[in-house]
Amino acid sequence: MTHALVTWTAMAALTGAAGAAAEPRPAVVELFTSQGCSSCPPADALLGELAARSDVLALAYHVDYWDELGWRDRFELPQAVQRQSEYVRRLRLASLYTPQMVIDGRDDVLGSDRVRVMQLLTRPRPAVPLAVAVRSGALVVEAGAVPGAASCDVLVLSFLPEAVTAIGRGENSGRTLREFNIVRSVRTLGTWRATAAAWRISIDSLPVDASFVAVLLQDRLTGSIVAAAKLPLPR
After folding, report:
1. How far is 141 from 139, CA to CA, in rounded Å?
2. Which pLDDT belongs to residue 210?
3. Distance CA 180, CA 163 (A)
């Protein structure tokens, strides 16, 4: 079975003339959260609203540094802290915190600040042409040519669309949390260097509890996201 999806950009752009105009793409909203943080549930709920929008790619990274409060988040991921730490460096922030949202790799905002988040989502978002498909048991990523563009990391993130967890200890003890688009793995496929290129990764190498995959092209220097797509996985 073959599943294919070209998200928020035209497949023709991948095979068209070099330098074709980039098309709009979804805003990428990355939430850094924890089941052990009492301030996080409102941000989790907001991310759930954003996940339902066709013009947003919403992703939740569960960090592990609140475990000491008495509850170990079952979705915590070492790569979540690594990614958040990189944003702290790039955005020149004072420290890690939750709930934090990063919009398009460029803007830091309190994850429960609905007004500011919605403001940031209104900006224009040109994109590098990007196509994602599943062929013969592999995820295939294709990026078009944009002469003069900055080099980007090609990231593949697998995620679980929704989960419900009863919390037994810690700051959210006694609560049942509903969480969305929970990232289960982060992998770098390679580097896009402004020319047309393709990458493959085996579907079997992705976590079995993830039923979707997101692909991001992220500027290696600034951290800005220039392309994004998502795809359901054949499970």
Report:
1. 7
2. 96
3. 7
For residue 37, the number of C-alpha atoms closer than 13 Å in the C-beta half-sphere is 21
Give the model's pLDDT for residue 79. Answer: 96
Contact, 58 vs 101, CB < 8 A? no
Residue 134 pLDDT class (50, 70, 90 cuts): very high
Residue with token string 């074709």:
20
Name the one residue in this structure whose structure tokens are 């991310």: 47
Q: pLDDT for 46-95, tens place per residue?
A: 999 999 999 999 999 999 999 999 999 999 999 999 999 999 999 999 99
The pLDDT, as a whole number, for residue 13 is 38
Those residues with Cβ within 8 angstroms of residue 20's Cβ, 6 or more apart along the chain or in another chain: 13, 129, 144
Rounded (10°) CA dihedral 189, 24, 147, 140: 30
Report DSSP letters for 154-217, one per residue.
EEEEEEEEEEEEE--SSTTTT-EEEEEEEEEEEEEEEEE-SS-EEEEEEGGGS-TT--EEEEEE
| Beta bridge pairs of residue 199 | 141
pLDDT above 60 for 1:
no
Nearest residue to 161 via CA among 228, 89, 214: 214
Look up the pTM and report it: 0.90
Look at residue 189 in the predicted model and tell me its pLDDT.
97
DSSP state of 218: E
Q: Do 51 and 184 meet the contact criterion of CB atoms below 8 Å apart?
A: no
Is 82:71 a contact under the CB 8 Å cutoff? Answer: no
Going from the C-alpha of 69 to that of each of 73, 197, 203, the distances in angstroms are: 11, 46, 36
